[in-house]
Amino acid sequence: MKPDGNFGWCRKILEVDLSDESIKEISPPYELLRCYLGGRGLGVRLVYDNGRVTPLSPDNLLVFAAGPLTGTPTPASGRASVVTRSPATGTIFDANAGGKFGYELKRAGFDAIVLKGRADRPVILEIEDDEVEIRNGDDLWGCNLKETIRIMRQQGTGSIAAIGRAGERLLSIASIGVDGSHYFARGGVGAVMGSKKLKAIRIKGNGRISIFDEDAFSHHRRTIQRMLVASPTIDKGLKVFGTPVLVKIAEWMGILPVDNFRGGKFDARPLYGSRLRSEHPSKRRACPSCPIGCKREERGGGELPEYETIAMFGPNLLNDDLDLIIEANRICNDYGIDTISSGSIIATHGISGPCEIPGLIEEIGEGKNRLKGG
Question: Where is the Aldehyde ferredoxin oxidoreductase N-terminal domain (predicted)?
Answer without folding.
Answer: 9-207
